[in-house]
Design brief:
Blueprint (H helix, E strand, L loop, with lengths): L5 H5 L4 H8 L5 E2 L11 H12 L12 H10 L12 E4 L2 H12 L5 E6 L5 H7 L3 E6 L10 H5 L6 E7 L11 H13 L3 E5 L22 E6 L12 E4 L3 H15 L4 H13 L3 H21 L4 E2 L8 E2 L2 E2 L6 H10 L2 E2 L1 E2 L11 E4 L4 H20 L1
Parallel strand pairs: 1-12, 3-4, 3-5, 5-6, 6-7
Antiparallel strand pairs: 2-8, 7-8, 9-11, 10-14, 13-14
Helix pairs in contact: 3-10, 4-10, 5-6, 5-9, 11-13
């Protein structure tokens, strides 16, 4: 007798979570991508006050209208003709992704996904009944895909392509010409373009390059408050698009996934956007300093090559130790008191890499890099 669904049995725990579960309390953690900050105090106070004021009820499926209007306004420098009907509040960016795949994908369809990848992409497509096809985002091209590689993967069953810039896990970031090439590919093949831009406010050199405002009517943008306002535990995100027909279907799907998002919390986020709008810039400034520090340290180590990211909160260096996989190296580092993620946790093309999330203090980064360097020198000499 079958006990569980094939869907459940086919999905495995992520390699990131595996390493996290093995770690003790005394490690220096570059593991999970969780900012070591608290949300803006005004947001916490507004969240608390909203609960005291009785904001503990169901909301509309798409979310608080005032918050949706504010989100639309926040994208006005890219797209001016949006309002609350263009936005659906979701219980996290990950909820938003599953919502989209369930809305767009039929059994037998396929979706083009980046590799190395955020580990939830592929399983979400599988849950929706589709198949993931991975396109390479490789170190030698600074983690930016080539259209030539994409052309080999698309066929009559391809319904969507997902782009993630700035990227988790690589930190790769687009310029406008690269964005336009990838946009043109999606348009030529009439694909839904899912743009995961949860790190849009954590960009170090120049403005964020978005797929919003490009004129393509099939862009569906996913975002989150988790990283930019240090609200990972609040689990709040959104989908925004100029395509109102798609938004109607997405909002309908949202009802059957979570019914609606948290009432009082939406008031906290609205207050953050209104009264602490500069907060993501403060975080980005600190993350840039940490990025500079960790990249400098890694590039001085034996067998390590590391690009300097222009955004997000990760570095994805190529690390070479003879006869050792990325998981082998990550396990040796864990024994020596440093938690990081093996590149293989993000797909086969991640092999040979490690991911370090620079979400700890500069002092802890320095201590951690000292340990990493000592471990790599020991492994290289064996």
């Amino acid at each position: 007798m079958r006990t569980f669904s094939d869907r459940a049995l086919a999905i495995q725990p992520t390699g990131v979570r595996k390493m996290f579960d093995l770690a003790g309390d005394d490690v220096i953690s570059f593991g999970l991508g969780e900012p070591d900050f608290q949300p803006p105090p005004v947001a916490i106070e507004a969240f608390h006050q909203a609960m005291l004021d009785g904001r503990n009820k169901y909301t509309t499926t798409a979310g608080l209208p005032e918050l949706r209007r504010k989100i639309a306004e926040s994208w006005s420098s890219y797209q001016t003709d949006m309002d609350e009907q263009n936005v659906c509040i979701t219980m996290s960016g990950t909820n938003a992704l599953l919502n989209l795949f369930l809305t767009l994908v039929n059994p037998g369809d396929n979706v083009l996904l980046p590799e190395p990848y955020f580990p939830l992409y592929g399983p979400d497509v599988s849950i929706a009944g589709g198949k993931a096809r991975y396109y390479p985002c490789l170190f030698d091209n600074e983690f930016i895909p080539s259209v030539e590689d994409l052309e080999h993967l698309v066929d009559e069953n391809t319904v969507a392509i997902l782009y993630n810039f700035p990227s988790n896990p690589t930190g790769g970031t687009l310029d406008e010409s690269q964005r336009d090439e990838l946009l043109d590919f999606a348009q030529r093949h009439n694909l839904w373009l899912i743009s995961d831009e949860v790190y849009d406010r954590i960009v170090f050199d120049g403005p964020h390059v978005s797929f919003m405002g490009t004129g393509y009517e099939r862009v569906l943008l996913v975002n989150s408050f988790s990283k930019t306002f240090a609200m990972t535990g609040w689990r709040m995100g959104y989908i925004i698009s100029t395509n109102l027909e798609a938004m109607q279907q997405i909002i309908k799907m949202q009802y059957y996934i979570t019914a609606c998002s948290t009432d009082a919390m939406q008031y906290g986020i609205l207050t953050a956007m209104n009264q602490a709008s500069e907060y993501p810039d403060v975080l980005a400034k600190e993350f840039k300093q940490r990025c500079d520090l960790i990249v400098e340290r890694l590039n001085a180590m034996p067998g390590v090559e590391c690009h300097k990211p222009k955004g997000a909160i990760y570095v994805f260096p190529r690390v070479t130790v003879p006869n050792m996989t990325s998981e082998d190296i990550a396990m040796e580092l864990l024994k020596d008191g440093v938690l990081c993620s093996p590149g293989s946790a993000f797909g086969p093309s991640g092999e040979g890499h490690l991911r370090f999330a620079y979400t700890i203090s500069q002092e802890d980064i320095t201590r951690g890099m000292d340990k990493v360097e000592a471990t790599l020198r020991r492994l290289q000499s064996q």
